[in-house]
Amino acid sequence: MNMSRRLFFAAGAALAVPASSRAHHGWGSYDAANPLTLTGEIKRSEFVNPHVHIDLATPGKMWEVTLAPPFRMDNRGAIATLLPVGKKITAYGYASRVKNAELRAEWIEIDGKRIELR
């Protein structure tokens, strides 16, 4: 393979990595004009990078709720043990315009304590 072709492929690979690492931050696809407040029971909890996720069973609908990154959750006192399966919480945020039943949470309330996520 000649040198210019190698450079072309190397440049393409370098450009692809940052694009994929930014992909999860498409906050423009959430409906900030119509905030929702959901209260329900956690059915699944994943305290992983790049964002913590929970499945929240609300009356008549299951929601995937995207929370802050784990380091921010920890910094705000929302450690993994506060989000066990079976726990009842309230989440306030914005529904996705792209993915049905997904909410980006701005804050959550656990045991009467509000935790700001942004």
Description:
By secondary structure, the protein is of the alpha+beta class. It has two helices and six strands; from the N terminus they run H-E-E-E-H-E-E-E. Strands 1-2-3-5-4 form a five-stranded mixed barrel. It is globular and about 30 Å long.
Overall morphology: globular
Query: If you average the pLDDT, what whole number results?
Result: 86
Terminal-residue CA separation: 48 Å
With strands numbered from the N-terminus, the spatial order across the biggest sheet is 1-2-3-5-4
Fraction in helix = 10-25%
Q: What kind of sheet is the major sheet?
A: 5 strands, mixed, barrel
Query: In what range is the share of β-strand residues?
Result: 35-45%
> What ranges have pLDDT less than 50 throughout 5 or more consecutive residues?
7-11, 13-24
SSE-based structural type: alpha+beta
Number of strands: 6
What is the string of SSEs from the N terminus onward?
Answer: HEEEHEEE
Count up the helices. 2
Radius of gyration: 18 Å
Topology:
Blueprint: H1 3-22, E1 36-46, E2 53-58, E3 61-66, H2 70-75, E4 88-95, E5 102-110, E6 113-116
Parallel strand pairs: 3-5
Antiparallel strand pairs: 1-2, 1-4, 2-3, 4-5, 5-6
